[in-house]
Specification:
single chain, alpha+beta, 48% helix
């Protein structure tokens, strides 16, 4: 599924997918904005479409980020995929407090990791960690 990349479509996706975070009930939300954003080894036209879509989404993300910044909310694209862009919407201050809470780590003690993250995902996590530091 692809949708037109507009400010209105992005705002609707943020509201639809991030309502608990927008209401201050949780520190972050993650969602996929559908579209072709990566075309490795594909035809040149599809690679150009992916480049154009990435630039358009970043262009539309900027005014949304500026509008949400006074509320303490940040937006960032964590990774680009052939099926969509993984968008992270978060409250940095709340996330820092949550991560610092020793009780917050307990639910993750029993999680099993089945697939190791790839280099792109690792780089996105490191960049996010640096931004939160």
């Amino acid at each position: 599924m692809t949708r037109e990349i507009t400010k209105q479509a992005l705002e609707a996706a943020i509201v639809r997918n991030c309502s608990p975070m927008l209401a201050g009930l949780k520190p972050a939300c993650l969602f996929t904005f559908p579209g072709v954003f990566l075309a490795q080894g594909e035809h040149v036209d599809k690679q150009e479409l992916a480049r154009s879509n990435r630039a358009k989404l970043l262009e539309e993300l900027e005014p949304c980020a500026k509008a949400l910044a006074p509320s303490g909310i940040s937006l960032r694209v964590l990774t680009w995929r052939s099926c969509g862009a993984l968008v992270y919407v978060y409250r940095p201050a709340m996330l820092r407090r949550w991560i610092a809470d020793p009780h917050a780590a307990r639910p993750f003690d029993s999680l099993a990791v089945y697939d190791a993250p790839g280099p792109q995902e690792q780089a996105a996590c490191q960049a996010l960690g640096a931004a939160l530091a």
